Amino acid sequence: MLRAQLRVVLLALRWPAAAAAGLLAVTTVMVVAEWARGRGGIDFNPELSIIPGVVGLLLPIGVWRGEDRFGDGLLWTLPVDRRAHALARVAAGWAWLLLALAVFQAWLLALVLLTGGNVLGDQVVQVLASGTTLAPMGAVEPSQLRTVRLPAEPALWLVPFTAATGAYAIGSAYALGVRHPVRWLVGPLLALLLVSAVGAAAGSRALALAPSGVLETLMYGTYGFDTLLTARSESLHTVARLPSGAVAPVWLALPDLGHWVAATLLWTGGGLAALWLAASRHGERRRA
Amino acid sequence: MEGAMHADLGDGACAVATHGLTKRYGDATALADVALRVPTGAVYLLVGANGAGKSTAFRALLNLERPDAGRAEVLGLDVSARGPEARAQVGYVPDRHDAGPRALTCGELLRYAAAYRPTWDAAYADRLARALALDPAKRVGALSKGNARRLQLLLALAHRPPVLLLDEPTDGLDPLVRRAVLALLAEHLADGPTTVLIATHHVAEVESLADHVGVLRGGRLVAQLDRDALHRTVRRYRVRLADGREAQRTMRGEARDVAAVLAAEGAEVREAAPLRLEDGALALLQEEVPA
Fold this sequence. Notes:
The complex is a heterodimer of chains A (288) and B (291). By secondary structure, chain A is mostly helical. Chain A is built from nine helices and four strands, in the order ααααββααααββα. Among the domains of chain B are: 100-154, no CATH class; 229-286, no CATH class. The longest helix of chain B is centred in the middle third of the chain and has 17 residues, at 175-191. The A-B interface holds A 1, 3-4, 7-8, 11-15, 65-68, 71-82, 284-287 and B 58-59, 62-67, 71, 80-81, 83-85, 87-88, 90, 92, 94, 96, 98-104, 108-109, 112-113, 115-117, 140-141, 155.
C-alpha cells in the first residue's frame, strides 16, 4: 500500500517538482553570477527554513489534488482499510517532502561552500539591549545595542526538516479533514474581523485589538508558528537605522533552542493529532 | 410495506443482500428498511427516480456510508465489519465521473489500481482499453465525461470481480460506445460467473441482460422480483368496462386474481399482455399498478 502511494504521489507531484527544480537552477545561476561579481558569499541562514515550512504547508494540496476526498472515488473503494490508506498517502507525501528537502539543503550547503559563506560558524551579531525597543522606522542608538558572539548551532540545520514536517502534518490534517477548505479558512478570518469591527464600534479598544493579538501570538509568540518554521530567526531578526544613516542587521533577542524544541513538539504533536482525527473521518464505517 | 411487491428471493444464494438498511440525512430519508436480495449470478436492475436512494445503497454496500440501521452483505461478508474484504470482491462504477488522480495518465492510473488487485488481468485490461478506445497516455484530468466513464468501467471490470456494482454505467457515453459497453458487459458475464447490480435510467439498454428488478421509491424498496415474475404479474389488460367502453389498464397480480378484481368492478378482461422489463419497471416506479 505504501509503495503504491509513494508511486502515485510521485507521479502527481512530478510537474511541480520539475518546476521547483527549474527554479533552483535559475537561482543557482543568479547566485553564482552575483558571487562571481564579488558580491560575497551566502551564509546558511535559518530564516531560509521558512521556504520548506511553507512548502510543507502547501504540499498537501498537490498530494490530494484531484482526489474525491469526501466522495466514493477510487482511493476509498480500493480493498484496504481506509484510514490506513489515507495515512499511507500522507506518509508518502512526507517521504517525498523530506527527500526534496534533503536535496534542497544539500544544494544550499553546496552554494554556501562554493561562495565561501558561513556554514553555521560562530557569528558576531548586534542585539538590542534588554528593556529597549526599536523606535519607529527602526531607528536605534548605538548605546542600545550590544555585540555578542553567537555560537555555532548545528541543530539549526534540523529546523527546515522539523518545520516542513510540522507544517505538512497541519496542512495534511486540513486537506483531509475539511470538506470545504475555503470556508474554513475564510470563516475564522471573517469572524476575527467581525469581532474587531464590533469592538471598534463599541469603543472597546481591548475587544478591537483582541483578534490581532490572537493572530500575533499564534504567529510570532514564543511558541508561535514562526518558532516552528524558523526557530524565531524570522521574527527576531530585523534591520535598524543608526544615527549615521547606516542600516545594520539587529536581533531583537537571541533565539532560544528550547523554545524551538517546545514549539516543534507543540505544533507537530497538534498537527499529528489533527491528522489522526482527519483520517478517522474516512475510516471504515463500523456499526456502533 | 404496504403495496410492496416482493417475490421470495430467499437469503440462501444471495451475492448481495441488505437487511433493514436505513440511512437518513437530517430529516431526509435516503433508505428506509431496504432488504435487497441479489441472487448469485443475477443481473439485478435497480430502478428509481433521482434521489430514490440507489447511489446511497451502492455506497452502503461498499461501506462508504454508515447506515443508521440494518446491515449490508457482499458474498456473505458484513461490509461494516469486513469492508476491505468485501470491496476486494467488487468492481464499482460510481455515479460521478471522477476517475482518479488527475495528474496521472490513464495507463499510470491502471497500474496504480492493479497494485491493489491481486486478481488484475493485465491482458484483459489491455483488451478492454482497446475496445473502449482509451488512450493510455492521456491524462486523467483531461478526459471528457464519456472517456472518464470508460476508464471507470475498465477499472471495475479488469480485476474480474465476482460482483459488479454499476451506478449509471452508460451515463455520458455516446450511443455507439454505449452499445460497445453493453457488448463488453455481456461478454464479461459470459466469461465467468458474475453478479451485477446495476442502477440506470436507461432501462431499455440493459433489458436483454437483466433478470431481476428492484424498484426504489423514496428510499423504500417497493418491488423486487425476477423477470419471469414481472412478466407474469405485471401486465397490461385490455378490458371492456361495464358501460361497454374499452380501456387499457396496467395491473399487478396473478391473472386470475386480476380478472376477479376487474369482474368485481363490472369489467371483463379481453386481452392481457406482459410488459417489457422497461415498461414493467416504469409502471411500478410510477405507482400506476393497482393490485
